[in-house]
Amino acid sequence: MLPAEIYSGCPSLGEREVFEHLKQSPQTREWIVLHSLDIANHMRQVSGEADFVLLIPGEGVLCLEVKACRKIRRTEPGWLYGSDPIPDARGPFRQAAEAMHSIRQRLIKRRPDLSHVLFWSAVVLPYVDFPVASNEWHDWQVLDAAALRRDSLAVCAENVLRHARSFLSTCPAAQWFHPNTPRLDAKTAAEIAQILRPNFEVFENPKARLSRWTEEVRRYTEEQFIALDAMETNQRVLFTGPAGTGKTVLALECARREVAKGNRCLLLCYTRHLGRWLQQQTTSMGDSLTTSTFHSFLLSLSGSHAPETAAGREYWEQELPEVAIEALIEREPPFRPFDTLIIDEAQDLIRPKYLELADLLLRGGLSLGRWRLFGDLEKQAIFNGGIANPEELLETRSGRYPTFSLRINCRNSPRIVSLVRLLGGLNPDYSRVLRPDNGIEPELKFFSTAAEHEQLLAGVLESWYGDGIRGGEITVLSTRGDKTCLASQVGKEPWRSRLKPYAEATPGLIPYASIHAFKGLEASAVVVTDVENVSSAVAADLFYVAVTRALHRLTILVSERARADVVSALTGVKTASAT
After folding, report:
1. Contacts of 201 (CB under 8 A, 6+ apart)
2. What is the DSSP string of 300-328?
3. Which of 256, 257, 401, 439 could be 236's S-S partner, Cβ–Cβ 3.0 to 4.6 Å?
4. Helix H segments across 30-113?
5. Whole-angstrom Cα distance, residue 357 to residue 341?
6. Taking the C-alpha atoms of 302, 304, 309 and 310 in order, what is their torsion angle to the nearest 10 degrees?
7. How many angstroms from the chain centroid is the CA of residue 146?
8. What is the dihedral of CA 142, 146, 149, 150, to 10 degrees?
9. Cα–Cα distance between 63 and 78 in angstroms, integer?
10. 365 contacts 358 by C-beta, under 8 angstroms
């Protein structure tokens, strides 16, 4: 039965009874029955419908028109069914025949080799006896109450096709019919059903989906612009809020507004990948805006180059800032300070030496100049060198300043936000979540061995590709660096060739990066790998950063060793191994 159950809104009791009889009868076990088949290319109408199409192996195809009325009559204007005052000029037999011919024409157009299949039509009148003879129909095409009392509907339907076969065998006009051609078999019946009512699965075009998702996030993020409007008259503002509250987009909008007012503006961030993305977004804003990572800007100020060998924290946090400060002071002609300083991911740059340098970069310094800092000082300060109270440190350099708290999540889907609340220990919580529910649950998958870890990653990527999600929408994040993370060691194709470090990934490939390096960015679908620990404060903050990068799809691959800690975070109940 296609569909397997009759539509609950079907108004015809007769159609319901016919449906249940055909479904329950042991004689129809090998049949395929299509109920309420729409006919887009009807031979007489813009569109039409066949009440039932029976595909009967060994016989042929029978189209049934059901008239479940308690009274039927024909007058000069046409046929009248029950108490319906509107006459039908065609009548049920022509209605059934036209539906049958329309279906047959469509089928043969698609599959000319099926032209030999026997097609016929009949009318079911389950509640009335219809002993009326006419040249307009054959007596054996009438399945009325009398016929259905003698035999079952299944037997009556088979008899119609047998009579039709006999009639066509002796009809000179039916030159297309050859009695000796093979009869309809089960395989051909299934093929016909697939043509008439195909099973299918389609998904939204990946580009269209990405565009819709991007537009959705952009629209909700722009609602946060009210924060910039509210604080416009303040020279110095710290915008704080957890991940997903639109801080980076607000920083970009702030830069755009400052440039529009004619101010020379410096936009800084900490991580390399975010810096590159910010530069791409601000290329059209003109020469009055300088966008850079903090350390790249220090290198340019000092005329230095990054060390060829990996430099330690001492160089980046002490030596380079001191060299840059000295270069600024001794510079000829004197350095021209910026009118506005904007810092994204500010929690990573609030340190004594960095603030000393920022004081020199800004006209009026931090205490009198115009600056906008955007940061998550609660959970994402994973680069701040252990500064216990960054807001207090900032105040010692700049004096008192207003703070605007961003608590509305405009990035993540509601179900991802729920996971953030449970696993991230967010306090205070988001006040609202703007994105609508996409119905997709974030997934936690546990692995015991390296092979199982890789197998899980490949399975996630294969599943997402099957859903139409492609490389440019997916990012793989790890607690480890690029050279030691799972994504760098995948050996199975095609994923081995498709996975590339974030800085090297061209469009269509799947980028991977450490959670540290990807901070401040986002992706439509995120797989988090190499999760070995979520219990320590550092691990919990890193985990929080990773989870909040995902806009729509999120899967986390967690070691069995951390299962107890994850379960404890989700349920609030300490397990034996988590205490």
Report:
1. none
2. HHHT----SSPP-HHIIIIIHHHHHHHHH
3. 401
4. 92-110
5. 12
6. 30
7. 56
8. -70
9. 22
10. no
Give the sign of the dihedral formed by CA 368, CA 374, CA 379, CA 383: negative
The residues, ordered by sequence, that sit 6+ positions from 569 with a Cβ below 8 Å of its Cβ are 422, 423, 425, 534
Sole residue written with tokens 């006896």: 129
Who's near 399: CB < 8 A, 6+ residues apart? Answer: 367
Angstrom CA distances, 222 to 219, 229, 251, 265, 341, stand at 5, 12, 12, 21, 21
Q: What is the pLDDT of residues 254-283, one digit of tens each?
A: 999 999 999 999 999 999 999 999 999 999
DSSP 182: P
Six-digit token string for 270 = 């900490």
Cβ neighbours of residue 133 closer than 8 Å, sequence gap 6 or more: 139
Residue 285 in contact with residue 260, Cβ under 8 Å?
no
Other Cβ atoms less than 10 A from the Cβ of 197: the count is: 17
What own/partner pairs with CB < 8 Å and gap ≥ 24 does 446-452 have?
Answer: 446/557, 446/558, 446/559, 446/560, 446/563, 447/557, 447/558, 447/559, 447/560, 448/559, 448/560
Q: What residue ranges define each of the domains in the chain, with the CATH number in brackets? A: 13-196 (3.40.1350), 231-406 (3.40.50.300), 414-578 (3.40.50.300)
Going by their DSSP bridges, the two strands 289-293 and 265-269 should be labelled as: parallel
Rounded-to-integer distance, Cα 251 and Cα 245, Å: 12
How far is 572 from 140, CA to CA, in rounded Å?
A: 73
For every residue of 80-104, DSSP letters joined together read EETT--S-BSS-HHHHHHHHHHHHH
DSSP state of 369: S
Least confident of 315-319, 357-361, 424-428, 480-484: 424-428
**Cα distance between residue 61 and residue 52, in whole Å:** 10
pLDDT confidence of residue 536: 77
Can you point out the beta strands (E) in 60-163?
Answer: 60-66, 72-74, 79-81, 119-125, 142-144
CA gap 332, 354 in Å, rounded: 22
Residue range 114-151, pLDDT digits in tens: 888 999 999 999 999 999 999 999 999 999 999 999 99
- CA–CA distance, 412 with 433 (Å, rounded to integer): 8
User: Per-residue pLDDT averaged across 218-234, rounded?
Assistant: 88
**What are 125's two structure tokens?**
């009148």
Task: Report the mean per-residue pLDDT for the chain.
Answer: 88
Q: How far apart are CA 183 and CA 165, in angstroms?
A: 11
- CB count in 10 Å sphere of residue 213: 17
State the pLDDT at residue 472. Answer: 83
Asked if residue 547 lies in contact with residue 423, where contact means CB atoms within 8 angstroms, the answer is yes
Tens of pLDDT, residue by residue over 430-472, are: 898 988 888 889 999 999 999 999 999 999 999 999 888 888 8
Q: What would the 3-class secondary structure string for 437-460 be? A: CCCCCCEEEEECCHHHHHHHHHHH
Inter-CA distances, 560 with 531, 532, 554, Å: 10, 8, 19
Contact 4, 37 (CB under 8 A): no
Count CB-CB contacts under 10 A for residue 468: 15
